[in-house]
Design brief:
By secondary structure, the chain is an alpha/beta fold. The protein contains 13 helices and twelve strands. A seven-stranded mixed sheet has the order 2-8-7-6-5-3-4, sandwiched between helices. It has a three-stranded antiparallel sheet with strand order 9-12-11. The protein has a two-stranded parallel ribbon with strand order 1-10. The structure holds pyridoxal-5'-phosphate. Pyridoxal-5'-phosphate binds next to helix 5.
């Protein structure tokens, strides 16, 4: 079949591929220790669900304004101001069909062929493909395990060329949990302003940070608005991945362009989900600290468990809910190696140890594995037992 160059430039999400392979085995009755999905295992809080049911009963089931209902845009601006210290107005806000859609629209209106977009690596799988689909080129900026996978302003500046138009900065990051501290973020903003580069802050994990980090937005920095685009989502903060509500906060002209694209593609996000998000943004945040406390417990368990396996190293993620161990000691071409690379290793782990996780290659980080700890302590313990057995048996055979 003849397909367009633009669709042939991108690949299906590799995380979705892992999840599908694990689901197939589960459907056959195999007990999988599943560290694949990047989504909270908590239910959406009751008051949010009730608001959606109320919206249905009130027949709020029709088209809405393309950028979202005004009360929700007002609520997003007020929530972001209260929680993260920004100062946006509804005309600088568009509600999208999830954070991913928000990024897709903003990238589509900002960059094109001949442009470069900087993406710190390890990166979330969708960033490079969204950039490529827009016709532009992703340029990866390295981070280091010693710096907790948080990108530095100096590394950004080094990667800037006359073609650079955009930096996509996800903090806390998926997959490595890197958190850029406020002072460094401001240095990065300074570099972006100096070179006239847009700084897109992906804040989807903003409220899942571990001490000493605190929720932070670059939109709270003085004079940041002219060069900053904020991408947010209710998916992780309020355990609402399936509702598909995200948002963009940016200068009005950019918001209008994103809205124009939305008007010719998805139209408004689902009306019912918008009313649910309105309840999330205007209601109590009481459900969030217990989720964070539970993630913190799980983080301790999984990082300590991984570190206890000889040959595995693992940094403490500063935020989000992923452990990102280095398993390069087990890779290579020698007869004693377990696999050539992490893609092969993760397939083996699924088939031989019934553990599902995502290989680092998917995130531009060969030698690493991503384990989501958005799963119960019991399942984490079970997965750790299987991993320990798998790796220790392999080490014993060397
Ligand atoms: C870094 C990052 N950004 C954005 C998203 C998009 O989330 P959603 O489209 O559900 O809002 C995700 C989801 O996994 C993510 O990990």
């Amino acid at each position: 079949m003849h397909l367009t160059d633009r669709i042939n430039r991108i690949q299906a999400s590799p995380t979705a591929a892992v999840i599908a392979a694990a689901e197939q085995l589960k459907a056959r009755g195999v007990d999988i220790a599943d560290f694949g999905p990047g989504e909270p295992d908590f239910p959406t809080p009751d008051h949010i669900k009730k608001a959606a049911i109320q919206a249905i009963n009130d027949n709020k089931t029709k088209y809405t304004a393309t950028p979202g209902i005004m009360p929700l845009r007002e609520a997003v601006c007020a929530w972001h101001k209260r929680e993260l210290g920004s100062s946006y107005e509804p005309k600088e806000c568009v509600v999208n069909v999830g954070g991913k859609h928000a990024i897709f629209n903003a990238v589509s209106v900002l960059i094109q062929q001949g442009d470069e977009a900087l993406i710190p690596a390890p990166y979330w799988v969708s960033f490079p493909d969204i950039v490529k689909y827009a016709g532009a080129m992703p340029v990866y900026v390295p981070t280091s395990a010693e710096d907790g996978f948080a990108v530095k302003a100096a590394a950004i500046e080094k990667a800037i060329t006359p073609k650079t138009r955009l930096l996509i900065l996800n903090s806390p990051s998926n997959p490595a949990g890197g958190v850029v501290p406020p002072e460094e973020f401001e240095r990065i903003l300074h570099v972006c302003k100096k070179h006239n580069v847009w700084l897109m802050g992906d804040e989807c994990y903003s409220h899942f940070v571990y001490a000493p980090h605190k929720p932070y937005s670059i939109a709270s920095a003085k004079d940041s608005k002219s060069h900053v685009i904020i991408i947010g989502s209710v998916s992780k903060t309020f355990a609402m991945t399936g509702w598909r509500i995200g948002y963009t906060l940016a200068p009005e002209a950019l918001v209008q362009a994103s809205n124009k694209l939305q008007s010719q593609s998805t139209s408004n996000p689902t009306s019912i989900a918008q009313y649910a998000a309105l309840a999330a943004m205007t209601g109590s945040m009481d459900a969030v600290p217990p989720m964070l406390a539970e993630y913190e417990k799980r983080r301790k368990r999984i990082v300590e468990g991984l570190r206890a396996i000889p040959g595995v190293t693992c940094e403490w993620p500063g935020g989000a809910f992923y452990a990102f161990p280095n398993v390069s000691a087990f890779l290579g071409n020698s007869p004693h190696a377990l696999a050539k690379n992490c893609t092969e290793l993760s397939r083996k782990l699924l088939d031989e140890a019934q553990v599902a996780l995502v290989p680092g290659e998917a995130f531009g980080a060969p030698g690493y594995l991503r384990l989501s700890y958005a799963t119960s302590i019991e399942r984490i313990d079970e997965g750790l037992r299987r991993l320990e057995k798998f790796f220790t048996r392999a080490a014993a055979a060397v």
